[in-house]
UniProtKB/TrEMBL annotation:
Coiled coil: none annotated. This is PDZ domain-containing protein. It comes from Tuwongella immobilis. It comes from the Bacteria. InterPro entries: Aspartic_peptidase_AS (IPR001969), PDZ (IPR001478), PDZ_sf (IPR036034), Peptidase_aspartic_dom_sf (IPR021109). Keywords: Signal. Pfam families: Asp_protease_2, PDZ_2. GO terms for molecular function: aspartic-type endopeptidase activity. Residues 1-21 form the signal peptide. Residues 196-249 form the PDZ domain.
């Protein structure tokens, strides 16, 4: 991934399909050439490609094999005139990646992701991010990654990804928003295979703040995402960050350094100065990308 809202990251893996789909090798579609798609690595080392939607753009997307679908932020979707259905899905007339790759019958979710909002607010990626391209599109291609080259090779596969479904009301655990309340039918079947998630490796955590430098020195919180771990911990806009865990905070870069290795689920003490008084709050980090 799943901002880094200073804490956010997209965790990328090379395969474009989850384990069940990999059981049967998919063959490239006949008489369809491989297309080279330009990419760049963002300042946070995520793979970024540019795409036009219905002829408008280009927009910046991160490739995220952990995301269930292509996701576009709501403001951009509304600006270009997309009309999502009641489940936030929008069907596209045309989706074109830079390099000439046309993706037919594409659909995306119009959702605001905490992670992207945080990354954009802090300028972590070095560019504005408009969304992510996830499994429902990536699984339709064999993608060759070579980080010594400036293009990815995309070859269409004779494969249609299984449809996604929403988790039924009451199944979700924490109100993280619709983007975290999606499951592929493939993933829903993992339990029947006797598979379970590893508890030994955890992704980076999510705090949900934006910060800015103070002219006289120091860093203050300029924005807090609603219902985020920061909000639940009692942090407030205007708080001057003094220490996160054991890292003293003097610059925004210190914040990034402090948060970069904190995993989801860890509770961390954050010391701030508010109205001339020192306060220490405990935030339990949420799940990032």
């Amino acid at each position: 991934m799943n901002a880094l809202s200073l804490t956010l990251a997209v965790i990328l893996s090379t395969p474009a399909a989850p384990p069940m789909a990999a059981a049967t090798e998919k063959k490239p579609a006949t008489s369809t050439p491989t297309i080279e798609v330009p990419y760049r690595l963002t300042d946070t080392m995520h793979i970024l490609v540019r795409a036009k939607i219905n002829g408008k753009g280009p927009f910046n997307f991160i490739l995220d094999t952990g995301a269930p679908a292509m996701i576009l932020n709501q403001a951009t979707g509304e600006k270009i005139g997309l009309k999502p259905d009641r489940d936030s899905w929008a069907s596209l007339d045309r989706l074109q990646l830079e390099g000439g790759l046309e993706i037919p019958k594409a659909k995306l979710l119009m959702l605001d992701m905490f992670q992207l909002k945080g990354m954009n607010g802090l300028g972590l990626a070095g560019v504005e991010l408009h969304g992510v391209i996830g499994y429902n599109l990536l699984a339709r291609y064999r993608i060759q990654y070579d980080f010594t080259q400036d293009k990815l090779k995309w070859q269409p596969l004779d494969f249609t990804p299984p449809p996604l479904r929403r988790i039924a009301k009451g199944e979700s655990s924490g109100g993280q928003g619709a983007s975290l309340e999606m499951l592929g039918s493939v993933m829903a079947g993992l339990g029947g295979m006797g598979l379970k998630a590893s508890t030994e490796v955890r992704g980076r955590g999510f705090l949900g703040i934006e910060v800015e430098s103070i002219p006289d020195g120091g860093v203050k919180i300029s924005s807090i995402l609603p219902e985020s771990p920061a909000a639940k911990a009692g942090l407030q806009v205007g708080d001057q960050l003094k220490q996160i865990k054991k890292t003293a905070i003097d610059t925004p870069r210190d914040v990034l350094k402090a948060l970069a290795t904190i995993p989801a689920g860890e509770s961390v003490e954050i010391t701030v100065e508010r109205a001339g008084k020192s306060l220490t709050q405990t935030a339990k980090f949420g799940r990032g990308f």
